[in-house]
């Protein structure tokens, strides 16, 4: 009997899911719009039916396939109780016991954690962290997420919410963060953060340019293209972002002494433009004991498959399905 798991990624706009085998091969995928379901049980029902159809499609090819479990990556996901708790970018309010809902619908074990933790497990099972027991995984998207693995185990803390490096304060009294505090790392080192930095640089160094720019068109890709074309302001925006991120990562090493730190997400796709200042700042600010020992690497997970692979890794890891 060949066992499959369903990896589900709950996003504010869309929910993606797929069937994944033990080797990390995604056999079939599907999606629904999260925003079409004002009640979480309605989404669970719709996704569960689609997953059952995908399993049936696989069984038509070989009757040996069997769904063994469900892994779910979600914003504000609490691993300990399988709930999404007060997620600001979802319509669902309060505490939503999503893992329990999926378990009841599909009659298989279901495990849930936040999306960054799920992606970190995906890196450990199917990516560059395979064989590593100590590493940190950073997602550089609209915000900054992180997953911390120590001695082969995901760090959850006593309440399930450990590892929020994006909400460590990097600039005291700095930019307002959605969490309610000021100066959080994700306000500077993320796709949205670098846009804010770029506009601040333009306003300070090149105010005339502000009059000729359509702000709605400016994103991290726009700034990357500008920097690669020789725009000094865009280049400095990446340099400043990398310097702050390297500094923050150097501090994080003192807590867990990881073998490597992996950077994932749209901003990490900038390659050397981001990695060069990150590594320079990182090594400069490391405690002497750690210098030249910790690798800063790009994630090797495929950008389009990472969320599903990460969620699938969660169930393989937590339930020890062989």
Strand order of the largest sheet: 3-2-1-4-8
Radius of gyration: 20 Å
Q: Helical element count?
A: 9
* Amino- and carboxy-terminal Cα gap: 11 Å
Q: For this structure, what is the CATH class of the largest domain?
A: Alpha Beta
| Nearest-integer average pLDDT | 94
CATH superfamily of the largest domain, by name, is ATPase, nucleotide binding domain
Q: What are the low-pLDDT stretches, counting only 5+ consecutive residues below 50?
A: none
> What percent strand?
15-25%
Query: Sheet with the most strands?
Result: 5 strands, mixed
Please give a structural write-up.
The chain has about 325 residues and is of the alpha/beta class. The chain folds into two domains: about 1-125 and about 305-320, ATPase, nucleotide binding domain (Nucleotidyltransferase, domain 5, 2-Layer Sandwich), CATH 3.30.420; about 130-300, ATPase, nucleotide binding domain (Nucleotidyltransferase, domain 5, 2-Layer Sandwich), CATH 3.30.420.40. It is built from nine helices and 13 strands. The protein has helices at about 40-60, 100-105, 115-125, 190-205, 205-210, 220-230, 230-255, 270-285, 305-320, and strands at about 1-10, 15-20, 25-35, 65-75, 75-80, 85, 95, 110-115, 135-140, 145-150, 155, 260-265, 295-300. Strands 3-2-1-4-8 form a five-stranded mixed β-sheet. The chain has a five-stranded mixed β-sheet with strand order 11-10-9-12-13, with helices on both faces. A three-stranded antiparallel β-sheet has the order 5-6-7. Helix 6 (about 220-230) crosses helix 7. The longest helix is centred in the last third of the chain and has 25 residues, at about 230-255. The chain starts with a strand and ends with a helix. The model has no long low-confidence stretch (mean pLDDT about 95).
């Amino acid at each position: 009997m060949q066992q499959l798991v369903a990896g589900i990624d709950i996003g504010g706009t869309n929910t993606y899911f797929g069937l994944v085998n033990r080797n990390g091969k995604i056999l079939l995928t599907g999606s629904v719009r999260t925003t079409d379901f004002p009640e979480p049980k309605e989404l669970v029902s719709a996704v569960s039916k689609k997953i059952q159809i995908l399993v049936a499609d696989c069984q038509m090819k070989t009757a040996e396939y069997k769904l063994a479990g469900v892994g779910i990556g979600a914003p504000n996901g609490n691993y300990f109780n399988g709930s999404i708790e007060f997620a600001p970018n979802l319509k669902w309010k309060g505490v939503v016991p999503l893992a329990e809902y999926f378990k009841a619908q599909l009659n298989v074990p279901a495990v849930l954690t936040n999306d960054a933790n799920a992606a970190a497990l995906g890196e450990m099972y199917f990516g560059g962290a395979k064989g590593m027991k100590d590493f940190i995984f950073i997602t550089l998207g609209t915000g900054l997420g992180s997953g911390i693995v120590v001695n082969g185990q995901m760090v959850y803390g006593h309440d399930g919410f450990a590892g929020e490096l994006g909400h460590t304060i990097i600039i005291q009294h700095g930019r307002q963060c959605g969490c309610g505090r000021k100066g959080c790392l994700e306000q500077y080192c993320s796709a949205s953060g670098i846009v804010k930095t770029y506009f601040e640089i333009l306003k300070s160094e090149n105010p005339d340019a502000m009059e000729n720019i359509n702000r709605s068109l400016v994103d991290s890709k726009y700034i990357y293209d500008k920097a690669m074309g020789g725009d000094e302001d865009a280049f400095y925006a990446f340099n400043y972002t990398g310097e702050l991120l390297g500094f923050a990562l150097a501090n994080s090493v003192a807590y867990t002494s990881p073998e490597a730190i992996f950077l994932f997400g749209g901003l990490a796709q900038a390659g050397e433009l981001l990695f060069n200042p990150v590594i320079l700042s990182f090594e400069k600010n490391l405690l002497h004991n750690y210098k030249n020992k910790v690798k800063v690497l790009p994630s090797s997970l495929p950008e389009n498959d990472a969320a599903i692979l990460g969620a699938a890794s969660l169930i393989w890891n937590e339930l020890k399905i062989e």
